[in-house]
Amino acid sequence: MHPDTEPRRRLLRTAAWALVTILVVATGLVGVVLWQHSYEMHEQRVSIRHGGHTLNGVLATPKDGHDRHGLVVHVHGDGPIDATHDDGYKPLWEANAKAGYASLSWDKPGVDGAPGDWLDQSMDDRADETAAAIAWARTRPDIDGDRIGLWGASQAGWVLPKVAARTPVSFVIAVSPAVNWLRQGRYNLLAEARAEGASPARVQARIARSDAIRRLLEHHATFDEYAEAMHGDTDGMTAGRWNFISKNYTADATRDLRSLRGVPVLLILAGHDVHVDTTDTERTYRGTLGGGGALTVERYPDATHSLLRRSIGQSDVKATLTALFLPRSLFAAGFLDDQRRFLNGLGRGAGATS
Q: Which regions of the chain are under pLDDT 50?
């Protein structure tokens, strides 16, 4: 036997076992991912006609054997969001399903091939769109039309009460909702400056720029006029985004919130929200909706604006890994359970059948 043969064989055996180990671990990780992303609900793509266009949606229904379910209609926050919010809604939909509720969501116009452009929408346009989706849902035999409510985050705070003024809703879950566009913008500017440790001079420069932009909006300036006033420094602003802001910068939910009086409302607020002044939001909701037990407020001290755990929200790597391997653990402790309990507390209603 050649003297180099045995070491070579040992090396090959070691390499083979290493490869087997890697394959076993990889298979196990794939299995974990598949298991973690297997949710207790049925999902189906649906199409909803509205205003001559089609809303491309997803309807998720419980696997509980009942013929009819209540429905949670999801209203997105800001940005180009698809029906599942890149699968981020699925843990929420599963919590809804455990309470016996289906969930409905759709791609924003212009997202994933959907017709239209969400940057062309006003908050009233978004409310009309949502009311059309509710009307569609009420025609379905598997949806209990008397148990349809709304879930909305952030910018949806301006949409939810407008929807309730257009069509009856049986509940609202408002997650980090804004009240006044301009106040929110100023709060966000100052909160981010504090988080960055910006100098007083830099803070004042940001305020001056913000005030200049407000004056341009008040004078209905075009995007080109905005760019000229900013000396070409558009800070990432596009013509489409300027159009969207111009349509909506006067948004204020205070008056519209009156349409939610008497409707069970779960107001969800984060402890580390640099986008929305949660104190202002809670004060407005309590002042407008009053007592009577219809308003429930839940605060999550360790949550960010998106209701992610703060430690996760501060790290893109941690957020990606958690979304991959433990998607239900992305959110603040108790967030999913509290929504499920809120829905459970509403009851199945007289119209529900099994």
A: 1, 23, 25-26, 28-29, 32-36, 349-354
| Three-state DSSP state, 186 | helix
Q: How far apart, in whole angstroms, are the C-alpha atoms of residue 96 and residue 327?
A: 16
Q: How far is CA 144 from CA 141, 234, 252, 346, 351, in A?
A: 8, 48, 32, 13, 6
Q: Can you tell me the distance from the alpha carbon of 172 to that of 181, in angstroms, rounded to the nearest whole number?
A: 20
What is the SS3 string spanning 248-265?
HCCCECCCHHHHHCCCCE
Q: Which pLDDT does position 52 carry in this prediction? A: 85
- Asked if 294 and 265 touch (Cβ cutoff 8 Å), the reply is yes
| Domain 41-178+251-346 fold | Rossmann fold (3.40.50)
Q: Give the 3-state secondary structure of residue 300.
A: strand
**CA dist., res. 21 & res. 81, Å (int):** 40
What residue segments make up the domains of the chain, in order of their start?
A: 41-178+251-346, 183-248
- Decide the pairing of beta strands 53-62 and 101-106: antiparallel
Please identify which residue in the block is written with the tokens 């790290």. 315
279 touches 270 (CB < 8 A): no
